[in-house]
Design goal:
By secondary structure, this protein is an alpha+beta fold. It is about 45% helix and about 15% strand. It contains 20 helices and 14 strands. The N terminus is likely disordered.
Length: about 450
């Protein structure tokens, strides 16, 4: 748990000086045209003798608005923390636009321009910025934070070459949402956590056949959006633990990629890309909430907008199905790393650390976990908030999200995250667009192209 005692100004300054001297930060600042100077011994002594800050410290927090739910999350954070009158006031650096705009470009631009935020959140893709971020281990241990209470898979996923590049706050995994009313109307049993791909296909076919009419198609499952590009890595794994080998091209990756597209291209139980774009209400959440799709795949972040949807959908969730192929079988899920990073150029380390202590603490994690935004990083809180009460609006099988953390795979946890994501997507596009290729050919190219990127970067930097 967090220590009740706040760090003194001198403690933070001493810790910050040690970090600023790190080679990773110096290299990053040099690239950005900055040259951080270490304070002289006399200056450090003078700073250490100053009393604790009395005036309000203004800090900046970068936040991408990926969805309305994420915007409401930020509103709660700012209102709650600023209302505590800690002597620190948080201002936001909002990144808006489609799917949160481009927060990574914004961070790089502001660091290079000398106007970087003090802290921030991405939700995915943090590894390329390891060189310009404080080691969260130093900050968390400095505030007496108990690291043993955290989900260790999450901690490992945020560690690169021995450095904890951001403070863990939670996990975002995936599960299947299903419309209970549609299953009841079709007389089809609800999907089960133990299902295979074939079991889910059978259910999708039965629901669609029973409920579709000549005037309206009711889809059994929507697999064309969100996880399609990631599905191979979710089941096979994107990289090995050492960060040196790309692993997407394997039997479970092949089985999942083949099955995922077959839903619409072969069995016609899900909307094709053109159907999904053309159908007026077939947009992300609406098609499921409005009863046009019986099953859809979302992350934990899907809970809040589905619960709030005006359609008032009666739903539950279930784990992703088991893939069987090449003599192997296993489950797969997306492992979204939810983090709070501290930018190493901050001149307000004490204020930033005070805000960080709130963000990684039980009040915030209990609230945001209860909203379904994340599976809290603190194991005891996750176990508490992901067990719905009798009067809870949450699905009865809410723990399916938490169980998925046992087999979920991080998405390219490497400093070349952006390049790997692009190469993987480009190699897989012909398959998803039903062009002249096979799933095996697409996966083989994806792994080969990504491996070249990893090998070149590792050779030059490790």
């Amino acid at each position: 748990m967090l220590s009740e005692k706040r760090l003194s100004r001198s403690q933070f300054l001493r810790g910050g000086a040690a970090l600023v001297g790190g080679s990773a930060l110096l290299a990053a600042c040099a690239q950005a045209g900055m040259a951080p100077a270490a304070p002289a011994d006399g200056e450090m002594a003078a700073e250490a003798e100053k009393p604790a800050m009395m005036e309000t410290t203004e800090i900046t927090f970068l936040w991408p608005h990926y969805s309305s739910g994420k915007s409401r999350w930020l509103e709660w954070i700012i209102e709650t923390y600023n209302g505590k009158e800690t002597g620190v006031h948080v201002n936001t650096m909002d990144v808006a636009g489609s799917f949160g705009g481009n927060p990574r470009s914004r961070l790089l631009a502001t660091v290079a321009g000398g106007a970087a935020p003090d802290l921030g959140w991405f939700g995915v893709g943090i590894h390329p910025f390891a060189g310009i971020l404080y080691d969260a281990n130093v900050l968390l241990k400095g505030m007496g934070y108990d690291m043993s209470q955290l989900n260790q898979t999450l901690v490992n996923g945020l560690t690169w070459q021995g450095k904890l590049i951001a403070a863990p706050i939670g996990i975002n995994t995936t599960a299947w949402f299903y419309n209970k009313d549609l299953f009841d109307k079709a007389g089809v049993p609800y999907p089960q956590d133990s299902d295979t791909f074939e079991d889910r296909l059978d259910a999708a076919q039965k629901v669609s056949a029973s409920l579709s009419t000549s005037d309206e198609k009711i889809w059994g499952v929507a697999t064309v959006h969100y996880v399609a590009y990631w599905i191979a890595g979710m089941y096979q794994g994107f990289m090995d633990d050492s960060g040196t080998e790309v692993t997407v091209n394997g039997p479970l990756g092949l089985e999942s990629v083949q099955w995922w597209r077959d839903n619409w291209a072969k069995y016609e139980v899900g909307p094709r890309p053109e159907d999904y774009n053309r159908q007026e209400d077939a947009q992300f959440f609406n098609s499921f909430a409005n009863g046009k799709v019986a099953m859809a795949v979302y992350g934990t972040w899907g809970l809040e907008p589905i619960r709030r949807h005006e359609a008032g959908v009666n739903f539950d969730i279930v784990e992703q199905p088991t893939a069987v192929g090449g003599g192997e079988e296993g489950k797969g899920a997306f492992f979204g790393i939810e983090e709070i990073f501290t930018v190493a150029t901050t001149q307000k380390l004490e204020g930033a650390a005070d805000f960080l202590a709130f963000l990684v603490g039980p009040e915030h994690l209990s609230w945001t976990g209860g909203q379904g935004n994340i599976i809290p990083a603190i194991n005891s809180i996750a176990e508490e908030v992901f067990v719905p009460t009798a009067d809870s609006p949450d699905p009865a099988n809410l723990l399916a999200f938490a169980r998925a953390a046992d087999y979920a795979k991080p998405y390219f946890p490497h400093p070349q995250y952006g390049e790997l994501r692009g190469a993987y997507g480009e190699a897989m596009s012909p398959w998803w667009n039903e062009e002249a290729t096979t799933a095996a050919q697409a996966l083989e190219k994806a792994e080969e192209d990504c491996q070249v990127i990893v090998d070149e970067w590792n050779a030059a930097n490790l």
